[in-house]
Amino acid sequence: MTGVAAARRYALLNFLLWLPAGLYLVPLVLLMLDRGLPVSTIAAVGIVYGLTTAVLELPTGGLADVLGRRPVLIASAVAGAAGLLLLGLAGTVALLLASAVLRGAARALSTGPLEAWYVDTMHAELGRDADLTAGLARGEVAASLALGAGTLVGGLLPLALGDTGPLPALAVPVLMASGVEVLRALVTTRLPEPPHPRPAAGAVLRGVPATVAVGLRVAGRDRALTRNPASSAAGSCAPEPRLVAGMHAGMLVLADRKRRPARPATAEVTMMAATAGPSAPARCRYGETVQVTQSCRSASSGSQQAQASA
Length: 310
Prior knowledge:
By secondary structure, this protein is mostly helical. The protein has helices at 3-25, 27-34, 39-57, 63-66, 69-89, 93-110, 113-126, 133-161, 171-189, 201-206, 208-221, 240-259; strands spanning 270-273, 288-291, 295-298, 304-307. The protein has one domain: MFS general substrate transporter like domains (Growth Hormone, Chain: A).
């Protein structure tokens, strides 16, 4: 697969990954209220979703290194489709809780392997010095567009439909989101698996405690990591800062490349599959190491100028 084809596939899958989140973000709480659930039960469903995601985030992270990027992405899409199908059709608290568990597992499984696939593919095709900036930026723009478009459709579609069909209008966007997850699974089956190091499952699991400790230390030093608000008490999986920040950052990088094609972009993000032990810096999901250097300067007028150097 060429670098251009990999970038396009990465953007498409990023779009399909985040479109379901936007579709069911708006009707999520309203649908459960319409089914007669009290606010306390709705909050419990959200807590189950959040806890499932948090508990599985690191233990499932190494699966993409051990099993491969494609199988984990397919498992994420299947779990997401099943969870959203339950959410759209379920009428009991037990089924809604099962939906929250499946959606949380899908979110945990989807965190990282797509980015790792793109980086591995580019490195295999163009070498370790391949320029990843433009492709990663397009992926962020695609994710932001998917969230925005999905939120608009998920909010307006129930108003347009009304309760005229066999299903509540609020359930239609949720079931549409389940269908998008099925489409994502089908598209992912045609994804070529790039070569990458495959550590043993035991080594990955043994590195989880050290990775948690490193993450807590980084979060304690960097206040920017702790300022992002929770996406929703009801268990929404769509973080709001991504919608604006992702699109803005991605479009700035693309604009910079078009304006000065002979020079590297002013923002460079290097993601590489890492199999080093707990001493490796900034260990992230699925063994990736992310190095981002950014220098920000704010003028007194309130304008901001950001420059990231390689």
